[in-house]
Amino acid sequence: MPSFHQILVPVDGSPPSEKALDEAIRLARLNGARLTLLHVVDEMGYVNGFESAVNYLNDIIPLMRVAGEKLLAHDRQKALDQGLQADSVLIDEGPGRICEHVAEQAALAKADLIVVGSHGRRGIGRLLLGSDAEQIVRHALVPVLVIRAPVEGATP
């Protein structure tokens, strides 16, 4: 089994993201690795065309930043409670695909593994929504462990 020293975990608060964080914590404990938690504020993720640009820039984006900071603080504390060293990074630098931000942060953190959650969408849902996890796999220069969303009614 390879040994990991620095694990990058992109988080967004979704159930697959929480599962990925749990797995990253488990791997970090096994390997004595450090975690870097990353949240990318997806500024275009909530645009619906009904809000004014001024309201979006002045009200909605700042709320997204605050929510991202709270998420990172919660997830970092979860790692610290397990006796791990953990850093957190919030990226809200405007345009850019999430996968590009993840790949850049992996290089900056000198990560030797990325652990990411996936909703596991198939068919038209995947085509319409795309897959951040798939794009991270395509752009990453280090191994990526993709953790699927919990399946309702399935046994672990």
Automatic annotation (TrEMBL):
Residue ranges occupied by any UspA domain in the UniProt entry: 4-148
GO CC, alphabetical: cytoplasm
Stated family: Belongs to the universal stress protein A family.
Name of the featured protein: Universal stress protein
Main subcellular location of this protein, as a coarse class: cytoplasm
Gene3D superfamilies (UniProt xref): HUPs
Location relative to the cell: Cytoplasm
The organism's place on the tree of life at top rank: Bacteria
Entry keyword set: Cytoplasm
SUPFAM superfamilies (alphabetical): Adenine nucleotide alpha hydrolases-like
